[in-house]
């Protein structure tokens, strides 16, 4: 009998409370208020009579909380200090009106049934007003036509500040607690941020005039390997210095000290040398570098010799890595070879007896053209029949440093040097010694021509 009574009581008590709860579920929302940064207490005991009953039952243990939740309509500005089944401590970081929802799922001892209790608060949060403000700037020095930014940090509040400038050399573009400062004219101005309750802070911004800069000369043409100098003319701040740079160091390199710089041509092409003043103002010099001319080696040791067929020319081929196509032979300034000569020897057969000729030879290089002329060599064409001796009495001998002529009395004697110059002309004697340097000489005694080599 006692057991049945206990069971009945366990069933009856939840039913009675349920009736009470259902009757307490009016469609309403409680109100709460506070200030930004303050702790606001939301308790189900203060929400309604039903909430107060649940509050007491949860404390006494006659009701068991299965789960609960507290949520805000704007969790981004909400800070929860404590949340439990009966109450919550909440802080809002911005002023405004927020909705806080609470939901509790509970049951009674000895019962498997679960019940739900919900509550809603409309919370109004106000700002007490800032306690101060601080202003900083991304730069406190700008040039005319440039801009910088000022930033206001508000303490104890989240309101926007008002911005002002102490003079009209700048323009202000406001965006909340950020202000863009545009430099219109040179001068210094004070930028001030002020809160609604009178707190203020400021920063000074100086607007400077730009430098002017020019380079002399403004353009330059150099040969590869050459060096020249540039000078920068600067007015304004730090007018005694600037930085130097090149657009292409393979064409031209630059080394600057103050307002002067040396420029060295490294390779053919075009490049730009830039001088930059302290404020970023620049000037340029356009540099053109021409390729270093190729030195074309010339023929050397050109020698002209009378032979039976005419005048024979021989020369020394220059030693070079360049590709030689051939040689041109010039007589008295006119080229006489129809095609390039591919040897270091040339025979000129178009010559006349007793005529004087001047010869030069040039080299033709593949891709580079014709070299300069060789040494000039002059020669008088004479009949060269050494094997025929008409004046058999005459004898011509070569000795060291001299030519000896014997038995040439009353015969005309002419001696030509290797370059064709006449070094002796006169009447022969029984013996005649003609001092000469080493080389090949032509000696004519009467009608007899001799070729002698003097060591």
Give a quick summary of the entry:
This protein has helices spanning 2-24, 49-60; strands at residues 30-35, 39-43, 64-72, 78-83, 87-92, 96-107, 115-126, 132-137, 141-143, 147-155, 162-165, 170-175, 178-183, 187-194, 200-208, 212-216, 219-223, 227-235, 243-246, 252-257, 260-265, 269-276, 282-290, 300-307, 310-316, 324-331, 334-335, 345-348, 356-365, 369-370, 377-380, 395-399, 402-406, 412-416, 422-427, 431-435, 439-445, 448-454.
List keywords for this structure.
455 residues; mainly beta; 8% helix
Would you kindly provide a written description of the structure presented here, covering whatever features stand out?
The chain has 455 residues and is mostly beta strands. Mean pLDDT is 86; it is low at 1-27 and 384-392. The chain has helices spanning 2-24, 49-60; strands spanning 30-35, 39-43, 64-72, 78-83, 87-92, 96-107, 115-126, 132-137, 141-143, 147-155, 162-165, 170-175, 178-183, 187-194, 200-208, 212-216, 219-223, 227-235, 243-246, 252-257, 260-265, 269-276, 282-290, 300-307, 310-316, 324-331, 334-335, 345-348, 356-365, 369-370, 377-380, 395-399, 402-406, 412-416, 422-427, 431-435, 439-445, 448-454. It is rod-shaped and about 165 Å long. The protein is 8% helix and 54% strand. Strands 26, 27, 29, 30 and 31 form a 5-stranded antiparallel β-sheet that branches. The protein has a 4-stranded mixed β-sheet with strand order 1-7-6-3. The chain has a 4-stranded antiparallel β-sheet with strand order 8-10-13-12, with no helix packed on it. The N and C termini lie far apart (162 Å). It is built from 2 helices and 38 strands.
């Amino acid at each position: 009998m006692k057991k049945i009574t206990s069971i009945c009581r366990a069933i009856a008590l939840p039913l009675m409370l349920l009736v009470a709860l259902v009757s307490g579920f009016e469609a309403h929302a409680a109100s709460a208020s506070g200030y930004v940064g303050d702790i606001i207490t939301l308790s189900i005991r203060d929400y309604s009579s039903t909430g107060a009953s649940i509050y007491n039952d949860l404390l006494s243990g006659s009701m068991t909380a299965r789960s609960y939740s507290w949520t805000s309509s704007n969790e981004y500005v909400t800070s929860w200090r404590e949340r439990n089944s009966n109450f919550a401590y909440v802080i809002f970081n911005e002023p405004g009106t927020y909705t806080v929802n609470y939901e509790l799922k509970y049951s009674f001892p000895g019962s498997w049934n679960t019940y739900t209790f919900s509550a809603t608060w409309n919370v109004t949060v106000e700002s007490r007003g800032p306690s101060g403000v601080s202003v900083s700037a991304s730069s406190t020095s700008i040039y005319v036509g440039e801009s910088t930014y000022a930033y206001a940090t508000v303490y104890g509040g989240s309101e926007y500040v008002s911005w002002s400038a102490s003079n009209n050399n700048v323009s202000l573009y406001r965006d909340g607690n950020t202000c863009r400062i545009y430099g219109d004219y040179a001068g210094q101005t004070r930028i001030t941020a002020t809160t609604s309750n009178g707190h203020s802070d400021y920063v000074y911004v100086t607007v400077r005039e730009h430098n002017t800069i020019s380079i002399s000369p403004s353009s330059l043409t150099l040969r590869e390997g050459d060096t020249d100098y540039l000078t920068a003319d600067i007015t304004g701040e730090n007018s005694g210095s600037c930085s130097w740079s090149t657009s292409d160091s393979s064409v031209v390199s630059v080394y600057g000290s103050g307002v002067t710089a040396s420029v060295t041509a490294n390779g053919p092409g075009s490049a730009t040398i830039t001088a930059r003043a302290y404020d970023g103002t620049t000037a340029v010099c356009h540099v053109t570098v021409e390729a270093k001319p190729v030195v074309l080696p010339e023929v050397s040791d050109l020698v002209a010799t009378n032979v039976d067929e005419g005048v024979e020319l021989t020369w020394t081929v220059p030693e070079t890595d360049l590709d030689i196509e051939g040689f041109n032979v010039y007589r008295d300034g006119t080229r006489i070879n129809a095609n390039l000569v591919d040897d270091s020897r040339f025979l000129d057969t178009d010559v006349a007896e007793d005529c004087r000729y001047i010869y030069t030879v040039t080299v033709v290089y593949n891709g580079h053209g014709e070299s300069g002329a060789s040494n000039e060599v002059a020669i008088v064409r004479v009949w060269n029949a050494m094997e025929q001796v008409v004046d058999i009495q005459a004898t011509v001998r070569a000795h060291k440093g001299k030519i000896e002529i014997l038995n040439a009395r009353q015969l005309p004697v002419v001696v030509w040097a290797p370059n064709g110059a006449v070094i002796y002309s006169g009447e022969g004697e029984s013996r005649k010694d003609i001092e000469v340097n080493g080389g090949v000489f032509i000696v004519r005694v009467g009608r007899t021509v001799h070729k002698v080599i003097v060591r």
